[in-house]
Specification:
By secondary structure, the chain is α+β, with helices and mostly antiparallel strands. It folds into three domains: 239 residues, Phosphatase 2c, domain 1, CATH 3.60.40; 102 residues, Phosphorylase Kinase, domain 1 (2-Layer Sandwich); 184 residues, Transferase(Phosphotransferase), domain 1, CATH 1.10.510. It is built from 18 helices and 22 strands.
Length: 574
């Protein structure tokens, strides 16, 4: 068992010589899985002295962040979660000012500075707006990790260039850095850091030892003695332990503690399920059709094969599937089945989809109409967008992982290769490798780049091409890519060469979706789906056939006229 993330903290805030304390600070250490998926959050805010309501802004910014950050999807990365919350809070503060008597004077509105630090796994994520500061404490000095957003107009006069609530747009400084046990951080408002030099602050923290609350109080008291005329707030965070391995791995290690189930036979019972038949068997997994006897619902049970019991990577991927399925809500993504009984073995239960794989469907329907293909591709796209909204990338989109029921409804299955940003953003330096089917994986994944939603778009484009032509746009060449030169050498074979009745603009749409260079694909998956049905307004102008094809007679008449003119000119010169 690896150690988990833990910290010690000391905090102190005082109004100082002012009648009202416009600073606000907070620390939240969650319990359970949120400590793994979200981490520990620390926030400090400082209201501007020219405003009589900025203490409301400070409290709203800190309290709102500590509440809303932990309510964001667990699949989101720390950066996305924090920035989404900060942008929403800024919009609310700015709206409060615009609806108040201070709407024409932003310096008297709901404005504050804010610094946030999120410690997750073995990484510190810093978010900063304004002139509160975040330091890393060394033995006898401080390292300033944030940048002051303040413009000095003279030695005595300055103004903030960035703050929460000051405008409808917000520019957030972000950085991340690795942490280890013993690392100490200081967050302070300008009432402290403008009146104490860094060596003095580092000395106070060092001399206070493990009593971090006392250190925070001493920092405030010393700044007050040095003539501080502002509010004084300090937070000191010391890292006690970090996970020896990424905590996402530890999470799934805990989920995979159940024993492996033996191979099952029709008629056997397991945790309230009755096995009907085996659907699939391989060296990696066994899949069974079963019925939940309590609800008489048919379900699919997927169990890792006994050969995989010593493969931690496979076990993590297997456990990830159920975690992902419980967080995605889409009519086109396989739904987990919730049983009233606790499992006694390691397996996954999902709702049964009557139908066949897209691979079988293509064999049964070798020449589908263009509208049928569009309908299937749009449904797959809707399923993929449900992943992408949660910062997940399917990474294994292939015909075998798409089910089609008798009514033509599509369902995506098998999430073992799915990349989840929120569970990977602390794994520094991990090399990306293709995790999906080679013939459907995007070229960039073979060059060591992590899969993105643009990679899923490539896979969907390949499936579109195959549905229409029965072949692949680059044959078997993509898995052979090992360099940028090879990538640039990939040549798209036009689909209309294999299916003559295919409109040229549809072929161009597919070609862009499967472009070898990711940045040349569609900027949004929805745009690709739209373009499959709607040509660009100027497409015909940009792809107008040459005159020789449009009107051969006029072309040759023009050539003859030019030759006649050239002949007459030559005779005249002669």
């Amino acid at each position: 068992m690896t150690s988990s993330l833990s910290v010690s903290a000391g905090q102190y805030s005082d109004a100082g010589v002012k009648p009202v304390n416009q600073d606000f600070h907070g620390l939240l250490v969650p319990k359970g899985h949120q400590l793994i998926t979200k981490g520990i959050a620390v926030a400090i805010a400082d209201g501007i002295s020219s405003s009589n309501v900025s203490q409301i802004a400070s409290e709203s910014a800190v309290a709102g962040f500590l509440s809303d950050y932990f309510s964001t999807p667990e699949s989101w990365s720390v950066k996305q979660s924090a920035q989404r919350v900060l942008l929403a809070t800024n919009a609310w503060l700015h709206a409060q000012t615009r609806q108040s008597q201070y709407r024409y004077d932003r310096d008297r509105g709901y404005v504050c500075t804010l610094s946030v630090m999120v410690l997750r796994s073995a990484t510190a994520h810093l978010f900063h707006i304004g002139d509160t500061r975040i330091y890393r404490v060394h033995h006898d000095q401080l390292e300033q990790l944030s940048t002051d957003h303040r413009l000095w107009l003279s030695p005595e006069e300055s103004c903030l260039t960035r703050a929460m609530g000051i405008g409808h747009q917000l520019d957030i400084d972000y950085r991340s850095l690795p942490i280890q046990p013993g690392d100490t951080f200081l967050l302070a408002t300008d009432g402290i850091h403008e009146h104490l030099d860094e060596r003095t602050m580092a000395g106070i923290i060092r001399e206070s030892g493990d009593d971090l609350d006392a250190a925070a109080r001493r920092l405030a008291a010393q700044a007050l003695e040095q003539g501080s005329d502002d509010n004084l707030t300090a937070q000191i965070i010391r890292v006690n332990s970090v996970p020896a391995v990424p905590e996402s791995s530890e999470l799934f290690h805990q989920l995979a503690q159940l024993p492996f189930a033996p191979e099952l036979q029709p008629g056997q019972h397991l945790d309230g399920y009755r096995i009907l038949r085996q659907i699939h068997a391989s060296s990696r997994s066994h899949v069974y059709l079963a019925v939940d006897e309590e609800t008489d619902t048919r379900v699919v049970l997927k169990m890792p094969s006994l050969e995989q019991r010593h493969d931690p990577v496979y076990l993590e991927q297997f456990s990830t599937e159920q975690w992902i399925a419980r967080r995605i809500s889409s009519a086109h993504v396989a739904r987990p089945f919730q049983s009233s009984q606790r499992p006694s073995f390691l397996y996954q239960a999902t709702e049964f989809v009557e139908g066949c794989t897209l691979r079988q469907w293509m064999l049964d329907n070798p020449a589908p109409t263009l509208d049928t293909v569009r309908d299937l591709v749009e449904q797959i796209g809707k399923g993929l967008r449900a992943f992408h909204r949660l910062e997940m990338v399917h990474q294994d989109l292939k015909p075998e992982n798409v089910l089609v029921d008798p009514h033509g409804t599509v369902t995506l299955i098998d999430f073992g290769a799915t990349r989840v940003a929120g569970l990977e953003d602390s794994e520094i330096g991990e090399q990306a490798v293709p995790r999906g089917a080679a013939l459907y994986s995007a070229p960039e994944t073979f060059l060591g780049e992590p899969g993105s939603w643009l990679s899923d778009q490539f896979s969907l484009g390949v499936i579109t091409y195959q549905l229409l032509t029965g072949q692949l746009p680059y044959g078997a060449e993509v898995p052979k890519i090992h360099s940028r030169n090879q990538l640039r050498g990939l040549n798209y074979r036009p689909a209309r060469h294999l299916r003559e009745n295919l409109p040229a603009w549809v072929d161009d749409t597919i070609e862009k979706a499967v472009h070898p260079q990711a940045h040349r694909r569609y900027p949004a998956l929805s745009e690709y789906l739209y373009k499959l049905r709607h040509p660009s307004v100027d497409w015909h102008k940009r792809h107008r056939p040459p005159l020789m094809e449009r009107n051969p007679v006029a072309f040759w008449q023009g050539v003859s006229a030019l030759l006649l003119l050239a002949l007459l000119a030559a005779l005249g010169l002669g």
